[in-house]
Structures are given as structure tokens and as C-alpha cells.
Amino acid sequence: MVIKTVMVVGAGQMGSGIAQVCATAGYKVFLNDLKDELVAKGCNIIEKNLNRQVEKGRMTEIEKANAIENLIRSTDLNDAENVDIVIEAATENMDVKKAIFAKLDGIAPEHTILASNTSSLPITEIAAATSRPEKVIGMHFMNPVPVMKLVEIIRGLATGDEVYETIERMAKVLGKVPVEVNDFPGFVSNRVLMPMINEAIYTLYEGVATKEAIDEVLKLGMNHPMGPLTLADFIGLDTCLYIMETLHEGFGDDKYRPCPLLRKYVKAGWLGKKTGRGFYTYD
Ligand code: CAA
Fold it and tell me: Which top-level group of life is the source organism from (predicted)?
């Protein structure tokens, strides 16, 4: 299977990053979202990132122009009739994802792979919303996508070997390191990361230390590039809560119970960097 054209559904933080790395690697990319403004916002982030690459001497003006030319703005899912793969990076919600996959299944050509960037939802269940479960796969990028090397590739129960191999090759073309995992809640990345973040929130909730102290311990003591509370703000507290709930529901174990303080912040609309306030405040 040869991939030439890509559609990325969702032009937010993750979707725009995925579109950027695909366009830079030479793929034609439809960047799709519900409204023009959302697509424009994603394209602006990409352009800003590419400008920085040029300023740093890592990319020429011509390479930047080529990458931008590879981007096609889309607000119509019917554009999926022109692509070899769709990478879905929409809202982290099973009903939303199932609806998108069912619609794409009716539009995209038979050979088209339908991939999801979901950070924790079961690929097998998303695949069941389509008539091509063997062509459905998880392609989980890390944030910020242009910087982070990992792509966690998740095999659903029915994912075909050829589809897996195609995605593995594509991840390498994007300059990423693919790692294969099976379809269990949170996969590997968030099954390990989120309970750590949740535990950091519990230590704050129980008054063990200040937020700055908790972050400092992990940064200086364990060499993490960001403390867990800063990282939670960076990921989005709503996303962290959603993933904890997925783990809690999926395994039924109390060790995955989301911290009440995390719930409270999300209810307050303090979702982290994207809303200007989470554990810390942002301009
Ligand atoms: N987009 C593109 N590039 C970015 C960026 C962004 N949002 N943020 C930072 N960068 C680039 C910077 O331009 C800089 O590039 P140069 O080396 O070319 O200058 C480089 O990253 C380093 O940035 P900074 O010097 O500003 O800051 P830093 O050294 O603190 O690095 C960081 C920033 C890479 C984000 C680093 O703090 C880090 O690695 N943090 C942890 C990130 C992490 O754990 N990500 C996974 C989150 S979990 C996830 O994504 C999975 C999930 O499902 C929830």
C-alpha cells in the first residue's frame, strides 16, 4: 500500500501538528475541521512553526513553501474520497469518533486506511462503526507533534498486517519512531503517564506539597522535562480527566480513580494552558 494523500480530521493542537509533519514529509494533506476559522487557526500554527524552522536554519524557504503548498484546507468530509489515509484527531469522545468513522467509511475509497489519534479509546470499538475494521488502526502521536519522536501504533482486534506495516513505514517517513502496542485502555503511554499525573494531583489535593514543589521534584529528581502538573496543563485537564475515566471504566480498578481536584478544575473550566488557567496561569 502506498500513501500519497492524507486527510487529517481536526485542526486543533494535535491535528495541526500531524498535518504539519505530513506536509513537510511530502504528502498532500487535507486539513479538515468543522469551520473555516478552525482550519485557518490550525494553518496559522503550522506556518508559525515552519517559520521558526527556517529562522533556525533547519529548513529552507523553498522547503517551507513546498510544505505549505501540500496543505489543502477542508471543511467537507467528502474530501476523503481523494485520500489514501485519514488520520482522525477530533474531540476525545467515543460517540464523536464513531460518527466520524461511520461517515468516512461511506465516503473514502475501499483502499483507504482509517486511523485514529485517540489517546486512550479502544480502536476495536471505533473500528466496529465501519465496514472495514481490518483497515482501522490507532496512530497515536505525542504533543507537541513536530518535536516528539514517538508514534504509538495500536492494532485493533481486526487490524490487517499490511495496514500495520503501511502505518509503520509512514511513521518512519515522518521522522518518527513507531512502537507497536495492543488495544487496551490507555495503550502504554497513557496507562503509565496519566496515573502519575493523577497521583501528582492527589499530592497537591492532600497538601503534601505546593504545585511548584511537586513539579520540581519530578523535574530535578527524575529528569522529566516538565513537572507533572505543568504537563497536565499542557495536555489539557479535560483530556487528562477523560483518559483517567477511560482507564477507570476500562479496568474497574480504584487505582485509576480521578482525583476530585482534577474534576473540580475541569468543572470550573480551568483546563490548562488552552484556557489560560489550570494549575498555573498563562497569558
Ligand atoms: N510546537 C512545535 N514546536 C515546539 C512546540 C510546539 N508546541 N513547543 C516547543 N517546541 C519546540 C521549540 O521550538 C524548540 O525547538 P528548537 O529546539 O528548534 O528551538 C524545542 O521544541 C524545545 O522547546 P523550548 O526550548 O521552548 O522548551 P523545552 O526545552 O522546555 O521543550 C518541550 C519543550 C519539548 C515541550 C519539553 O518541555 C517536553 O518534552 N515536555 C514534555 C512533553 C511531553 O511529555 N509530551 C507528551 C505529552 S502526553 C501526550 O501527548 C499523549 C497524550 O495522549 C496525552
Answer: Bacteria
Q: Round to whole Å and give the CA distance between 99 and 127.
A: 11
Cell of residue 125, nine digits: 470499538
> According to the model, what pLDDT value does residue 121 have?
94
Q: Which residue has the CA at smallest separation from atom 31 of ligand 1?
A: 225
Q: Is 174 exposed, middle or buried (0-12, 13-18, 19+ CB in 10 A)?
A: buried
131: CB partners within 8 A, 6+ apart: 105
Q: Which atom of ligand 1 is nearest to the CA of 146?
A: 2
Q: Is the pTM of this model over 0.80?
A: yes
User: Is residue 1 over pLDDT 90?
Assistant: no
Q: How high does pLDDT run on average in the chain?
A: 97
Of 30, 154, 166, 169, give the one whose Cα is nearest residue 111. 166
* 115: CB partners within 8 A, 6+ apart: 85, 86, 87, 88, 136, 137, 138, 139, 167
| One-character DSSP codes across 96-130 | HHHHHHHHHHHHS-TT-EEEE--SSS-HHHHHTTS
C-alpha cell read off for 58: 533547519
- Minimal-distance CA residue to ligand 1 atom 12: 147
